[in-house]
Amino acid sequence: MTCRTPLPHLAALLLATTLAACTQAVPTPMDSAPAATPAPAAQRKASEVQTPKITVHRDAYCGCCHLWVEHLRKEGFDVEDHVEEAMSPVKERLGILPAHASCHTAEIGGYVIEGHVPASDIHRLLREKPALRGLVLPGMPMGSPGMEVEGVDAPSYTVLALHRDGSTAPYAEHSP
Q1: How many whole angstroms separate alpha carbon 156 and alpha carbon 175?
Q2: pLDDT tens digit string along 61-96?
Q3: Burial class (CB in 10 A: 0-12, 13-18, 19+), 36
Q4: Which secondary structure element, helix H or strand E, spans residue 6, and what is its range?
Q5: For the purposes of burial, counting CB atoms within 10 Å of the CB of 45, is it exposed (0-12), middle (13-18) or buried (19 or more)?
Q6: What is the pTM of this model?
Q7: Residue 144 is inside which H or E element, if any?
Q8: What is the per-residue burial (b if ≥16 Cβ within 10 Å, else e) of 64-83?
């Protein structure tokens, strides 16, 4: 008797789950002016009112980027939302290598933020002010902000510190 592993079925399920997360109802591309409205002051924590504006560059047709923007707003960030026709020039200008890339890129306080980095890590970065280029979360890890899928047990993921020379090191571990 042989034991067969349902590896093809598991791979298909993982692929379908990942695609479903980023193909959620995709909003119609819109002018960034209405999206630049800051979170109401009453929703901000007193210590976060001085948080600088975060400029988010995102693809017009990605279904998860707007969810990350919503996450930032809920955490008190004043988001300036730029819908881009092409993300490659943005990533090149900010020094994001393909190995570190995700679906959206942000700028805040002289730092670059790549991917679905949790707001808590961005707050920590701004509070500690380390000598870094920024933070990256390569790919689109399930369970990260904007990539949550109800009913799916997401694996842990690691946000990386991006040094000025392009090298990376672990910055924060997250277990959804």
Answers
A1: 4
A2: 888 888 999 999 999 999 999 999 899 999 999 999
A3: middle
A4: none
A5: exposed
A6: 0.74
A7: none
A8: bbbbbbebbbebbbbbbbbb
